[in-house]
Design a protein that fits this description.
With about 150 residues, this protein is of the alpha+beta class. It is about 30% helix and about 25% strand. It has a three-stranded antiparallel β-sheet with strand order 1-2-3, with no helix packed on it. Strands 4-5-6 form a three-stranded mixed β-sheet, covered by helices on one side. β1 and β2 form a beta hairpin. α1 crosses α2. The longest helix is centred in the middle third of the chain and has 23 residues. Pfam families: OsmC.
Length: about 150
């Protein structure tokens, strides 16, 4: 069963040409040319992105906000945590293609055990990207605190 939401903001984007085309948001804030990487048999055009680049950037930003939110609830300053989302794509055992993600959370100013707690709680309870991927995408957490 899918939980219903009360939408507070909607971002809208369109793409033409698929993975070798162009994508942009309706407000023009994001506008990028796309190209399939050479590693996947594509042209790998310079200065182009992939959907995985865009997903990685969004997930990293969203997860950073979730870690900061959880930190504030625990009275821990995690606002400067660096989140790196490494999004991989490849063939699935059952056919087609799938994604996997490694989220790395780094903040030397927060003790390791505390940062692990914040990251786990952000992943389990707060981040909407984590909610969307749960059960569909293999997401691993790597935490590097002080």
């Amino acid at each position: 069963m899918v939980d219903k939401i009360d939408p507070k903001f909607t971002a809208t984007a369109s793409a033409t040409g698929g993975r070798n085309g162009h994508t942009a948001t309706d407000d023009g804030i994001v506008s990028v040319d796309l190209s399939v990487p050479k590693a996947m048999g594509g042209p790998g055009k310079p200065d182009t992105a992939t959907p995985e680049h865009l997903f990685a950037a969004g997930y990293a930003a969203c997860f950073g906000g979730a870690v900061d939110f959880v930190g504030r609830q625990h009275k821990v300053n995690a606002a400067n945590a660096k989140i790196t989302a490494a999004v991989s794509i490849g063939p699935r055992e059952g056919g087609g293609f799938g994604l996997s993600v490694v989220l790395t959370v780094e903040d030397p100013s927060v003790p390791q055990a505390t940062l692990e707690t914040l990251a786990q709680e952000a992943h389990a309870k707060i981040c909407p990207y984590s909610h969307a991927t749960r059960g569909n995408v293999d997401v691993a957490l790597s935490v590097k605190g002080g």
